[in-house]
């Protein structure tokens, strides 16, 4: 049994995760599809490596930094008015973070 404060690791879909399951690939793919935006477009807008973005989307990379998620979110918002702030927050929630949006 893990001690209090230790990360509980799980094996899910070939990915080892900490306290939070890594749902980033699912959330990222869903938002990209809704927005009609490609990893290439996000790469051109943000300067993030397109291969890195593709690996995030496929789940081959996980736990992007909050700064990276902000850059991705700003790019998606730039290219699409269809995606809501709540949906963008789902990218943060998918890796155990929050924007702390107050309603």
Q: What does the secondary structure layout of this molecule look like, with pairings?
A:
Layout: E1 10-12, E2 15-17, H1 24-35, H2 39-46, H3 50-58, H4 66-79, H5 85-93
Antiparallel strand pairs: 1-2
Helix pairs in contact: 1-5, 2-3, 2-4
Quick rundown:
The chain has 103 residues and is mostly helical. It is 50% helix and 6% strand.
Account of the protein in words:
By secondary structure, the protein is mainly alpha-helical. The protein has a domain at 22-93: lambda repressor-like DNA-binding domains (434 Repressor (Amino-terminal Domain), Orthogonal Bundle), CATH 1.10.260.40. Helix content is 50%, strand content 6%. It has five helices and two strands, in the order ββααααα. The protein has helices spanning 24-35, 39-46, 50-58, 66-79, 85-93; strands at residues 10-12, 15-17. It has a two-stranded antiparallel ribbon. A hairpin with a 2-residue loop joins strand 1 and strand 2 (15-17). Helix 1 (24-35) packs antiparallel against helix 5 and helix 2 (39-46) packs across helix 4 (66-79). The termini are far apart. The model is unreliable at 1-18 (pLDDT under 50).
């Amino acid at each position: 049994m893990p001690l209090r404060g230790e990360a509980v690791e799980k094996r899910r879909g070939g990915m080892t995760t900490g306290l939070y399951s890594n749902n980033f690939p699912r959330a990222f793919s869903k938002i990209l599809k809704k927005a009609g935006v490609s990893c290439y477009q996000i790469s051109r807008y943000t300067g993030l490596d397109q291969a890195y973005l593709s690996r995030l989307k496929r789940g081959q990379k996980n736990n992007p930094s909050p700064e990276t998620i902000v850059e991705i979110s700003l790019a998606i918002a730039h290219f699409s008015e269809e995606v809501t702030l709540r949906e963008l927050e789902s990218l943060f929630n998918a890796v155990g973070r929050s924007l702390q949006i107050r309603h």
